[in-house]
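Reviewer 2 asked us to include a model.

Predict the structure of this chain.
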Amino acid sequence: MRMTARWNNERPRVLVVACSDGRLQQITDEFLLRERGITRYDRLYVPGGIGALSASGRDFMRAQQLQQECKYLVQLHRVEHVIALFHGPAPDGPTDAVCADYRRKFEWATPSEIRAHQEEDAKDLLRYRHEWAANAAISIYRCEVNGQHDLGFVQLHADHHAKPLHSGPQPRPPGHMTEGRD
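Predicted model (structure tokens):
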């Protein structure tokens, strides 16, 4: 089968590190387009998303290997901006929205405790950012499902020196939530 899209030799300068959970792919693409103006990006999709690069829980070797793979991709493709995503329920959201990889690592934890682990992992990842993102700018978000099953993104971190990726705000669909938190 022949496709209508044509080969573009220019590499995207954005890498998205996200969970491989198929329930999130469409909303991730929509978020990147509407909120960031991004249509082309490299992907590193693994169970746990950016949390897989953190050694929290019991995954030290896995985290180290994924950090090396991420840094390799950043350097090889000359990535300028890494967009890193966690996911889970909002405070009023359904428990089945908890990231399965975090549920595996923290079997005993409540959804709010897992959210706290993700926020702590974000801080830890920023502390040793050069181990996995080299010199790329970093933005970290958490995709949340609220009690009405609406999806939205909460900003956990954004480098102040990150280049703007589009020229203005995009319209948001009804029920779409995007919040900032630093």
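DSSP finds four helices and six strands in the chain. The mean pLDDT is 89. We have added this to the supplementary material.
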